[in-house]
Write a structure and sequence with these properties.
Growth Hormone, Chain: A, 22 helices, disordered N terminus, transport, transmembrane helix, membrane, transmembrane transporter activity
Length: 496
């Protein structure tokens, strides 16, 4: 017998724990492979343009499947969907772990992405129906602990394994946990959400794949291929933009849209979504620029650079449930403004890093930045979702996840482009002021490269600071969604 999608009287903690376990395994996998790409490139004797598809392809598959998650969550029981997703993820992990060639490794990675894409939206929707709106902050804070901590510790764990073991261990260690998650789900997982039989608009699926896939591919390739590459950058972005516009127009005309964009008629959801997108762009800047500074400018090893980011990941994870409880008490505005102010200040400090900045100083600034960001994402997302009627929860979570995925790719490409262009300009300026003898000195050449790239990273962080300040100003307009029984009844009535 299915349970109603209205809030359950008693949270199903065992079900949530099983979902958390599976989600943690799949989220950890998201960032686990990035540090290992150079090693894999050597093992299979392939170019970087090929090996980077292990990251780009994963992001593409996730990006095009997340918009479909609202349909899947509405149509299929959460038990069936979770088991199917974890089985697919497990098969992909096994194929990648024992891949005899790069082709099989890439296919395994794509299968992993297909399995994990729906995990975040599914878990978030279960949390939304398991807790009353006035207690969702604390509950979503625990969800944030999984969503944030797992991918954050990935690079550190990966750096250690790649340095002392073999890259296949990255998949082999995930495999038993993925299998355990499937077994637990088969025997213990229950259905919590009511389902219905929505129709699937095939054209919307095609437009979604073309739109989001084109944008994700084009912007992700821009950082390595350059903005003047027609085949890999400009053409996909143009096709993606056309597909996305067509997709959006079509959703408003359908009675049962694939992705119900009417969620944006709710002002606090719309504002929270915009702030989340702006904040995601700033967050991705730190994830790209900080390792570039640490490894390429300061020549710190991958393991040490991963360890450098670990305190920030731990702080972010520990703060997530605390932030959730603070949200239930104070609402979103105080937390978002405070968090974004801290993020802006730490981003300013990052823009002033130099060749003499100490290892501990870098750790403190990066950790401070993660501390600030931990106060922003989950409170504003939870506040926005509180304004949606229950039937729109799957669409609200899908919209948020899709938007952050696309903006993350765009932000990464833009920040890398700014970094590279500014580094090139600075390099040309420094070369003009050097004599031939200096240019022939290997030590001087190395210093020139360091100084040029440092300048590019500093300018990129200044742009990230401006982006963060935009989010800071927008946070002043946040209002707490009233979750009294009368208001909840009104929201549900308006949503029918």
């Amino acid at each position: 017998m299915q349970m109603q999608t209205e809030t359950l009287k008693k949270p199903p903690y065992l079900v949530i724990a099983i979902l958390f376990f599976g989600a943690f395994v799949s989220f950890l996998n998201n960032s686990l492979l990035n540090v290992a790409l150079p090693t894999i490139m050597i093992d299979f004797d392939i170019e970087y343009s090929a090996v980077q598809w292990l990251a780009t392809g994963y992001m593409l598959v996730s990006g095009v499947l997340i918009p479909v998650s609202a349909f899947l969550i509405t149509k299929f029981k959460n038990r069936t969907l979770f088991i199917a997703s974890m089985v697919i993820f497990t098969l992909g992990t096994a194929l990648a772990a024992f891949a005899p060639s790069f082709t099989f490794l890439l296919i395994g990675r794509m299968i992993q992405a297909a399995g994990s894409a729906v995990m975040g939206p599914l878990l978030m929707n279960v949390m939304l129906v398991s807790f009353p709106r006035e207690k969702r902050g604390a509950a979503m804070g625990i969800f944030g602990l999984v969503m944030i901590t797992a991918p954050a510790i990935g690079p550190t764990l990966s750096g250690y394994i790649v340095e002392y073991w073999d890259w296949r261990v990255l998949f082999e260690m995930i495999l038993p946990f993925a299998i355990a998650s499937v077994v637990l789900a088969v025997f213990k997982l229950e259905n919590l959400m009511e389902t219905r039989n929505p129709s699937l608009d095939v054209l919307s699926v095609i437009l979604s794949i073309a739109g989001f896939g084109g944008l994700l591919y084009g912007f992700s390739m821009a950082s390595s291929e350059g903005w003047d590459d027609v085949a890999h950058v400009l053409a996909p972005i143009i096709v993606g933009a056309i597909g996305l516009v067509w997709f959006i127009v079509r959703q408003f005309r359908l009675e049962e849209p694939l992705l119900d964009l009417r969620v944006y008629k709710y002002p606090m959801f719309a504002l929270g979504s915009i702030i989340s997108m702006v904040n995601a762009a700033a967050m991705f800047s730190g994830m790209i620029l900080t390792p570039a500074y640490v490894q390429s400018v300061r020549h710190i090893s991958p393991l040490d650079s991963g360890l450098m980011m670990l305190p920030g990941a731990i702080v972010m994870g520990l703060m997530s449930p605390i932030t959730g409880k603070l949200f239930d008490k104070f609402g979103p505005r105080v937390l978002a403004f405070t968090g974004l102010a801290i993020t802006a200040y730490s981003t300013y400090l990052l823009s002033n890093l130099d060749l003499q900045s100490t290892y501990m100083y870098i750790i403190v600034i990066y950790t401070l930045r993660m501390f600030g960001m931990s106060m922003v994402m989950m409170p504003i997302m939870t506040n926005g979702l509180n304004q949606l009627p229950t039937r729109l929860n799957p669409h609200g979570t899908a919209v948020n996840n899709t938007a952050q995925q696309v903006v993350g790719a765009i932000g990464t490409a833009l920040f890398v482009t700014i970094m590279n262009s500014e580094a090139t300009k600075e390099g040309a300026k420094l070369v003009a002021g050097m004599d031939p003898a200096q240019l022939a000195d290997p030590a001087a050449q190395s210093l020139l490269q360091q100084q040029s790239l440092l300048h590019g990273i500093q300018v990129s962080f200044v742009v990230a600071l401006v982006v963060t300040l935009v989010a800071l100003v927008l946070s002043l307009f946040l209002k707490r969604v009233n979750v009294s029984p009368e208001d909840v009844a009104r929201i549900e009535a308006e949503g029918k």
